DNA sequence: TATTGTTATACTCTATAACTATA
DNA sequence: TATAGTTATAGAGTATAACAATA
């Protein structure tokens, strides 16, 4: 009953607990789950929000480049863009310089929807990051960004 | 051509770039992808390795508790445990104190397989974390662990 | 009543290959 | 040849509901 390695006392993670990949996986899943719960009413998902955010900052960008920025395959972008266009959040017009491509822009509805969601997301992040100071949050983003920069 | 917000120059992420959830998502996906590539030959996956690691540190634990530690539903544990038992890495015997449950332990093959994979995983992590000092890596794990602790 | 393991099932996400029209 | 968008499809991963045996 007092065996320090006994499962009935307090189960341990073993080697897992020292792996950055494991903690990234769990923290990321926590954020994804809470994101979905917080934005439940809006029909917004992490990927869709990412697309809207990028299109706002790069008006006229095509969907291939959006996908490249987010690590989404061209084939999988089609349904996502269709969903946003059908929802009236995104406008898709023939690109002037390349007749194969579409130039993407936010509609007015897309602009306001993006802002509404951003407000919800900021509350959601503040909730999950409540234990970290502002400087620790910047530290975290900085470390993650350096990892991401290693390949992309 | 010199418009600083032009998509053709250097596309930006917009609001996304300030969100911890986004960076967690991308960094986590990078680790998952490289994990899969590094362990490709072994048939090992992140979840399976997690199960083996927990069983080693908690010999005799049942699959429900393993799933609870990893955030995996009971229903989804069945196929995972079957896969590891069929692969000869995990042994499943009737628990002495609860006839509903199975006590899980690593087989000898499971022990050596776990160690082999751990060696590969450590190289994979060292590769992806190459830009971070040892102290920065500890900082990162510490920050992630504090996020995870907020709910579980 | 609650819990362990289980089955069945459905839904999302992701990955690949191949096609078309343009470049 | 290469690229943008598209279709079809298959595989993971994940979520829910329900059941039998046991607690």
Q: If helices are DSSP runs of H or I spanning 4 or more residues, what is the number of helices of chain A?
A: 6
Class based on secondary structure composition and strand pairing of chain A? mainly alpha
- The value of Rg of chain A in angstroms is 20 Å
Q: What is the arithmetic mean of pLDDT of chain A?
A: 92
Give the largest interface.
A-B, 64 and 63 residues
End-to-end gap of chain A: 51 Å
The biggest beta sheet of chain A reads: 2 strands, antiparallel
The number of E-state strands of chain A comes to 2
Lateral strand order in the biggest sheet of chain A? 1-2
Tell me the strand percentage band of chain A: 5-15%
Oligomer description: homodimer
User: What is the molecular shape of chain A?
Assistant: globular
Please give the share of residues in helix of chain A.
55-70%
